[in-house]
């Protein structure tokens, strides 16, 4: 009886330990400085929301599809040191539909106020104010997740927060400081893989099996990403805003290595998802058939993996192609031959993202089936309740 209680307590500790580790890391990362706080272009200015009470479009040059010039707006400042005051702000137009914005009376804008003492020198209208609706969207998502998943939903929110902080507080600053993007990306991805899967299972054999399979899949994606990026002669400048990054004072960054790292980082979420699915299926089989052999458990995992790959191989295709619908429409509207399309470097870069990422998904299935079968079957194991179950 005492041994059963000890087993149960041990399983409970292993299940809740990842939560403590995750919360501790979230706290540490939230307090960790990035090292670039002093490099803010907006340092020394006041930022707040402002309501547009009047607009003057007399200096706006309308050329049909695009507009240039500047839009003068009378603003009621809604926060900051000048809250309640009315001042004029300027919205500079560059003739780009992608970047330009037009304000109307009643809109809320995010503004940056340059001032000296109590005098406003100028107001730059950054963009429409969206922070309130972004907060509403995030809270609705969190509430829905908790409503349907309960404690698991809370763990999912914790893993989401940890991932955001890991990328923003560690990955991006280390990239900017010139550290090897592939090694840093691999380390961050593998740490996140361990913690995210541990939040699902706890620190037990299921976690070890799923992490092993997912880690091997990520490594395959990493190696293939490096090989085919070089084979396709893709330069990292194909990434959006990469040239702006170089001209922002970081001309020595290895953009190609950053691009390579983005391949396995972008596919790691789907890899983790598939590894957990297969591991959970194998664990369920072993729970129902404690006498199952390792060979049969691996075979069961393979069968689940084959079924899952039927849909997972198109997951990344839809995820990446969804952001390039306009580009594909341009190609079709201009009658661009398919051979030309496939040879454009920005198309080839997305082919690498999609196909190499899918390689990771395909390989993670046998890897996870093998690790799950070897670790979960053919030995005495303990269920989640702490009850020992003998394997034949």
UniProtKB/TrEMBL annotation:
Q: State one Pfam family annotation.
A: YibE_F
Which organism is this entry from? Lawsonibacter hominis
Which keywords has UniProt assigned to this entry?
Membrane, Transmembrane, Transmembrane helix
The record ties this protein, via InterPro entries, to: YibE_F
Q: What is this protein called?
A: YibE/F family protein
Name the residues that span the membrane: 15-36, 131-149, 156-176, 182-203, 215-238, 307-331, 351-377
What's the superkingdom here? Bacteria
